[in-house]
Amino acid sequence: MELREIIHFPQIRTRLPIHVHPGAAEAETQLAGYVAGHPVLKPYAAKIRQDQSARLVCLWAPQSADMERILAAAKYVMITYLIDDMLDEGWTGIGAREMVAGLKRVIAQQKKPQTDVERTLAAIINPFLDGLGRTFRSRINAALADWIDSGAVRGGTPHQTHRMTDREFLDWRVSDVGYEANIAIAEYAVGCDVSGHEETLRPLKVKAVEHVLIINDVYSYRRELAKGCADAGILNLWMRRDGISLQGAVYKACALVRAIEAEYLAMERELVSREPGLAAYAEALRMLFQGNLAVHACGTRYNGAGFRGNLLRGAWVRLDPDITSVIAYDPGSEGVGEPVPLRPLRAGSFCPAG
């Protein structure tokens, strides 16, 4: 497909509210100040600003009452985005390929950081992972190490992905670092420890992460295609396996997102009827995937630095190499799906441990 193709993004018409933390602007300002004063990160300030890490956390965890936790999670998202992009670009800029083993050992706390890059990584990732507890930290350490390996050697995408069924493909994607990392961000930001309920909550968590992954694949397609990294997405699976167009794949993704939301709501009702104490956590997962929809449909990481549109509304867009250009919105879609502020709960009142 040539970039600059015009594609229709239909309004997903979600029934679920999208909330944003009322302190989002403050979080973005504080993160920008941290980057501006950091010798390793400062050269990447424009890219970090485009990635909107603080806004992502404020949409994923709008009920958090702790700005320090929001900022710690935002720094974690920021550094993983930065490393991910450097992996895609062959480790130019932030470090050489031979630094991969050292970064893994720093993350696992098996090595004291020695370089500026390693010290930066440790200073950001350790407070975040320490706040998750030992069990979660062990799991996410392994997942992050696998993610760095897969990016560094280009071995993270199985061969013949286009022969997978949809279920096989989603199971593979969920088993990747996305499951641990996405869930961890929300749990940390709201100070939530439900590690004793992993078996009970896993089906709900998996469904939430499936929603996140499909939304990411849809809105990141322009950027991933421009970088030559679109093969691992579900749109490419359908185009190669089923012989459908990009437009057909976008429509199919939107239909699947609606189906996943309906499944999630049914699973949530059943879970809460059995275990009312988990209702707040189930709500937090809903806020996570709805916030993810908002930050990628309205944000600039995947849509380009000059993006000024809102793809929560149905719209015709042109996939330029550097930006998603909105050509026209669907009639009657204006104002639908805008994130609204949510008053944070009192500190300590959300998701008690155990």
TrEMBL record:
EC number(s) per entry: 4.2.3.-
Broad EC category: lyase
Protein keywords: Lyase, Magnesium, Metal-binding
The protein's required cofactors: Mg(2+)
Pfam families referenced in this protein's UniProt entry, alphabetically: Terpene_syn_C_2
Lineage top rank: taxon: Bacteria
GO function term, MF aspect, one: terpene synthase activity
Family of the protein in this entry: Belongs to the terpene synthase family.
Protein name: Terpene synthase
Source organism (scientific name): Streptomyces klenkii
